[in-house]
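Form P-L/3: holo structure prediction, ligand hypoxanthine.
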Amino acid sequence: MHETSHILEAKQFITSKTDLVPEMGIILGSGLGSLADEMDNATIIPYKEIPHFAESSAIGHANELVIGTLEGKTVVAMKGRYHYYEGYSLDDITFPVRVMKSLGIENLIITNACGAVNTSFNPGDLMLITDHINLTGQNPLIGPNNDELGTRFPDLSEAYNRALGTIAKEVAKEHDITLREGVYTWWTGPAYETPAEIRMIRTLGGDAVGMSTVPEAIIAAHANVNVLGVSCLTNMACGILDEPLSHEDVIAVAAKSKEAFMTLIKNVIKKI
Ligand code: HPA
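OUTPUT (holo model):
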């Protein structure tokens, strides 16, 4: 359970560094952090300085909170995130969502790099997350409920906000960006899935698979924050192609999709 006093301590530390009040948040996934470098009037705070924040060890994650303006909006960006597979608790990895909410955000853009399970998708495509499947049996809300933060049984019927999704689809059309739509499946990792697990995920209705996003989206729903989820499909999931998966390839393909990703996200932010 997230303690209200911990959230307040982190909030007070952050607000002592900047006068900007962020109206939206963005979590930048593997290889996608450079969007934060486009922000103006940026205050950069290493996670390790912020009370109760943990630190990600994954390659491609800078571990910085960046608060500034982007496309005329005040934004708080997480340049890199923590993952469950690093050994952090689900409370740890979702704590920043609580802090961003306390700073004032109403909308949260969650991004990630993930594998394509749907065989009609291609590596490098972007995907609007329409829904998720939690295959881990884990939930960040297990334990006592902090009623100050949200209800015991949050509704997930619109965990990924439809209005924000419509904006993303409009922007993609205007800028000629391929934006797939699909269901994201949460796998704990750190091992990639087996070919049999990918066939199972496809049978169950998953279009993509990755190691993040779902716990953050659940906490956002609990905190009444609207979520837009955008994935970068960095590879065909295990067993679809006759080649092994590597984190280096994931980062390299994410880098290639960076331009389309930045155009999409910046223009969505402008329209929200
Ligand atoms: N599976 C899980 N996580 C991932 C993948 C994948 O294929 N690609 C990038 N993150």
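COMMENT: The beta strands are 24-28, 40-46, 64-70, 73-79, 107-116, 126-134, 179-186, 208-210, 226-236.
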